[in-house]
Write a structure and sequence with these properties.
Layout: H1 2-20, H2 22-33, H3 38-70, H4 74-93, H5 104-110, H6 117-126, H7 129-141, H8 147-169, H9 171-177, H10 180-209
């Protein structure tokens, strides 16, 4: 039981940090706020992280209920989520900006938007479709486990958002140390890990939906 909880904890922390992608969110934050005053920048990253945290916590609490209301099975959602995460991971490996994160039009329009903290930083950069999908899958995984497993999920969400918060806070220092080449290397490594997690989601979903294919 302790071993399962440890494995689940590592899965929660790694998958949420990778899909939230604090470094990618920070670089977007820098590009969107480069001409703004320091006080406004401070307000933007605080609001963005707070809103993203609220969204993911609400999804974690009500995600299962939402699936039940819509009549979607966990296995179907897990497989669909795995496919979505696989696509995001592939784009990370090939150093492309995921379309589920931020489009060029959104980035351009957000420069004249007074509330860039909400759109596009909080949604979809931090709490995007991938993060929402991952949170719902993880909360359903925790259904048959102890209460500690639920606490691990919300703690993992908090850790991912906290990392993003501090990276945005010290964005000027980070950008001075990390060049585009280094960022692409880190992004590709994270993409490979995300692909592995996505494939595992799909495998687990297929095994549960079609037990005979799992050999049971």
């Amino acid at each position: 039981m302790a071993g399962d909880l440890l494995s689940f904890s590592l899965l929660c922390i790694s998958s949420l940090i990778i899909i939230v992608n604090p470094l990618g969110a920070t670089l977007t934050y820098i590009s969107l706020t480069e001409n703004l005053e320091k006080s406004l920048k401070l307000q933007i990253y605080r609001d963005a992280c707070t809103i993203a945290l609220i969204i993911l916590v609400v999804v974690g609490i009500a995600g299962t209920i939402i699936l039940q209301v819509l009549g979607i099975s966990l296995e179907a959602f897990r497989i669909a989520g795995g496919i979505l995460l696989f696509g995001i991971g592939m784009e990370m490996v090939y150093a492309k900006t995921s379309r589920t994160k931020l489009t060029a039009t959104e980035k351009y329009e957000s420069r004249d938007n007074e509330d860039v903290a909400v759109m596009p930083l909080a949604i979809p950069m931090i709490a995007g479709p991938g993060a929402i999908t991952t949170t719902i899958v993880l909360t359903n995984e925790a259904t048959g486990m102890s209460t500690v497993a639920w606490l691990v999920i919300f703690a993992s969400i908090g850790i991912a958002i906290a990392i993003t918060y501090f990276m945005m806070k010290y964005a000027d220092y980070i950008i001075s140390k990390i060049g585009q080449r280094q960022y692409r290397v880190i992004n590709r490594l994270m993409g490979i890990l995300l692909i592995a997690i996505a494939v595992q989601f799909v495998i687990t979903g297929i095994k549960v939906a079609f037990p005979l294919m799992g050999g049971s």
